[in-house]
Amino acid sequence: MAEIILEMRHITKEFSGVKALDDVNLKIKKGEIHALCGENGAGKSTLMNVLSGVYPYGTYTGDIVYKGENCEFNTIRSSEKKGIVIIHQELALIPALSIAENVFLGNENTTFKGVIDWDETDRKARDVLSTIGMGSEDLSQQVQNLGVGKQQLIEIAKALTKQVELLILDEPTAALNDEESNILLELMLNLKKQGITCIMISHKLNEVSRVADSITVIRDGHTIETIEKTDKAIEEDRIIKGMVGRELTNRYPERNSKIGEVVFEVKNWMAYNPLDSKRKVINDVSLHVRRGEVVGFAGLMGAGRTELAMSLFGKAYGKNISGTMIKNGEELHLKSIKDAINHKIAYVSEDRKKYGLVLINDLKWNMSLSSLASRFSKHSVIDSNDEIHLTEEYRKKINIKANSIEQIVGSLSGGNQQKVVLAKWMLSEPDVLLLDEPTRGIDVGAKYEIYTVINSLADAGKAVIVISSEMPELLGICDRIYVINEGEIAGELQKDEFSQERIMKIIMNHIGREK
Amino acid sequence: MSNETTMNQRKLAMANLKQYGMMIALFVIYIIFLMLSDGKNAAPMNINNLVMQNSYVVILSIGMLLCCLTANVDLAVGSIVAFCGAAAAIMVLDYHIAVPVTFAIVLLIGILVGMWQGFFIAVLKVPPFIVTLANMLVFRGLTMVILNGQTKGPLPQEFTQVGAGYLPQIFMQIGGTKIEILALLGGLLASVVLVLLEIRSRRNKLKHNFVVAPIWQVVAKLVVIIGVLNFITAKLALYMGLPLVLLIMMALIIIYSFITNDTVAGRQVYAVGGNVNAARLSGINTDKVMFWVYTNMGLLAALAGIVLAARNASATPKAGDTFELDAIAACYIGGAAVQGGSGTITGAVIGALVMGILNNGMSLIGWSVDIQRVVKGLVLLAAVTFDLYNKRKSA
Largest CB tally within 10 Å, which of A297, A493, B185, B336? Predict the structure, then answer.
């Protein structure tokens, strides 16, 4: 029996009454690579943040026993002192500083009183970089000139200088291509040989089954099971079953779909990254939506669903967009967002605070914003009576809980804010609605109400596309699902074929496909 | 229900109180200087000077408020004021172009200068702070160049009329004092209009079942505003009547209040300042908004340049120096949010008046210009600190 380096016991963590982690137990053996798997929002990152002191001791309940010692970490620094280092999905590098400076960021080699010893810095940086196979790199080079793959390695170098014993990697290969991922995975196996224990969070099950010695599956804030690698590799299907195996209860309103003819169709849609016009973000996507139909876009984070929806919405995202868009039999050539709105297309963004609302303004102003020119004004002069009447009507219609339409939206709850965004787009009277994560971060009751609104929109003959990272939600409210991965349509599921395993399998097959 | 109504009314009263806070501060500052200067700042001639001296800052503040709404500023306005004033003086004195034609051309120059700034800001996406800082240097330099570093004057009476002239006057002798009747009548007429507008807006709100302020509050507000208004017009009547710039300012305040409150364009400026991403995804061409905000600023800077040159009867290379700072300070003192997205035209005008009354009062009691700067700086600092503190507390 191998030595246990870390044990997390009965960890429970709440965010304003919602349990993100509920009595989670985790055992990590010394010198192994341990993978954490689970859907988006299952609680993997939260658990790692508890471990590394991002959420300080006292904000959660339960015990962390590390090397036989009960630990109470209050900051990331206190966990780093013990040799626990976390590398987040968003890299913590300073783009304009050199490689050497980044490697020792927050951990500088100093002579006395905070003066940096550059010789020592360069010598040590050279040493640590050669252990990760980057010995030939120019140390004075700015980090922003490196690719993401190398940046990820720099992060690991940074961890190594902190005498890391337990390294936590959150989605380390999410942004990497196959070759870069390979280098990283090899490095992980190398570090293992040197006796460093590693926890990795990953969606890429093929990588997990390749390098992991054991896998813990987390679902809805609970640890479901830990699968040990025996003599043969762990099968991906086995992991998927653990990840999604949950029962659906009656969390979705009844829906009698009355589906009509195709109203919205996209053919051979392509889009490139606006910052890097050689990188294809959307590749040859063709899809259609019928009148009264709710179509889901399933996929992992970063699959390109938001990018696809925004590129359709008057080129709000992307460069060199090509392809055909047909609405009600008429081919559209949208040049701007305004154009899209005028052609009765609406896009509800995934981040309501950042992209959906003007938080310092009231309900009325927010709800009228996208149809000011078309509906609330004559000769550019706003008809404030119309504005009051219509926004009040919609407030009642979808039951936004606010004192009045003159309340500042920043003071509303998340669910009600989301309803304000929906009302805004309903007021623009669209035929096609693109709803991006319409229920993100809102409670179950508000979710149900949003689903009801989506149903009524479909019943009114609109074509609705819903993007969601919560698979059960898509299964519950959609008539048909497109599975999207790496900017392509990886598969399509009809209602009678719906299951989470199928969606996951389509994604995994697409990730593992020959390129 | 009744409980909720009184609660909403109380909230509304608090909001109104905040809105009138700066107006009350303005009043208090005026009273303090009234006592310190032994009533000198209430003399008819001084009231007249207050109006004329502050007209350009008020005009600039109106344009600057739109910049502030987008969470930016225009540092070049002082230089543009000087440049436009110089261009006007040269056209009239050296090229003998008719005054009305000159005015039209100068306003056009202002628009072009604004478009030049707007092009860099909206199309080339250079931060407004940098663009306007650069143009502050460029147009100050150009002013020196076209004036050869000399003052150009004197300007003909037809020109100076705009900055130093009066509306038609009818003087009457009443009880031994000479009084300009039209100023008095103008004040009374404006009072009647204010009352009618208030009644109309209140009726409209009641018709839509909206919460309205209690009647005593409305009456109190009207009494104060009408009192101040008629105090000013009465004082002006005792001097030379209504200055032409007063009419220009009033017209601008009404036009721009209308634009910001009641037009799609105005609402778009607020949306861009409040959340540029949300505005863009709601179909607003945010670049276009930025372009026109700075173009508009150019136009108003040109107008201020004409008024300033007219009042001084000449154009000087140093004209309009630090006016941009006065205008920016006026907006923030008047409650515009530093983060953008909130602020009003009336607020900016009141801010400008606070600065003006401070300047005027301190001059009257003989404080040096150096001390005046210190006081103005502290007032700005206090006003914005107070505003931010208040917001944080209520958040």
Answer: B336
Q: What is the number of other CB atoms lying within 10 angstroms of the CB of residue A491? A: 19
Strand bridging mode A4-15 / A18-29: antiparallel
Q: Which amino acid is at A292?
A: G
> And the tokens for A260?
């009509």
* CATH top class, domain B2-165+243-387: mainly alpha
Q: What does the domain layout of chain B look like in residue ranges?
A: 2-165+243-387
Q: Is the ipTM of this complex over 0.90?
A: no
Which residues of chain A lie closer than 8 angstroms to B274, CB-CB? 358-361
pLDDT tens for chain A, residues 1 to 515: 578 899 999 999 887 666 788 899 999 999 999 999 887 667 888 899 999 988 888 889 999 999 988 988 988 888 988 899 999 877 888 988 999 999 998 888 888 778 888 888 889 999 888 888 888 888 888 888 888 888 888 988 988 888 899 999 988 887 777 778 888 899 999 999 989 999 999 877 888 888 999 999 888 888 888 888 876 667 777 777 777 665 445 678 888 888 999 999 999 999 998 888 888 899 999 999 999 999 999 988 778 999 999 999 999 998 899 999 999 999 999 999 999 999 999 999 988 989 999 999 999 999 999 999 888 999 899 988 889 889 999 999 998 988 888 888 988 888 899 999 999 999 999 999 999 999 887 776 788 889 999 999 999 999 999 999 888 889 999 999 999 998 999 999 999 999 888 998 998 888 877 55
Domain boundaries, chain A: 4-244, 260-344+430-515, 356-429
- A-interface mutation test, from B209, B211, B282, B288, most A Cβ less than 10 A away: B282
Task: Please indicate whether, in this complex, the C-beta atoms of A358 and B277 are within 8 angstroms of each other.
Answer: no
Contact residues for A235 (Cβ-Cβ < 8 A; gap 6+): A209
- What is the third-level CATH fold of A260-344+430-515? Rossmann fold (3.40.50)
Contact criterion met (CB below 8 Å) for A314 and A342: no
Which helix (H) or strand (E) segment holds residue A434: the answer is strand A432-436
Chain B interface, best mutation among A355, A384, A427, by max B CB count within 10 A: A355
The residue in chain B having the minimum alpha-carbon distance to the alpha carbon of residue A367 is: B282
- DSSP per position, A167-190: EEEESTTTT--HHHHHHHHHHHHH
Give the CATH fold of the A4-244 domain: Rossmann fold (3.40.50)
